[in-house]
Design brief:
Length: about 120
Amino acid sequence: MKLTFSTKFLFIFLLILLVEILIGKYLNDAFIRPFGGDVLVVVLIYAFFRIFLKTNYKKLAFAVLIFSFGIEFLQAVNYVKWLGLEDNKLMSIVLGTSFSFYDLLAYFVGYLICLMFKD
């Protein structure tokens, strides 16, 4: 692992962040917002790390997948309430408040997309 700065991944990160914000603000459907947004959040996190790290892309993508799964399983035990953030709307949105097996599938699809970014 080596520290670096990638303008390519900065651009990808900013683009996905903008798409995520637009989805959150303007879409309230049954597929793109819940599933597509979760797919993109994995790619967003991956791209963020790739801005600063030159590392094995497969290991990084897998680490982001495991992190995403971990957060999802924490949602099953209502960790936002444990942290005392249930009344904070922004943090509740960012951290998530409900477990779903479909989210795990979405994270896996995001992981597969991350594997396409080899360089």
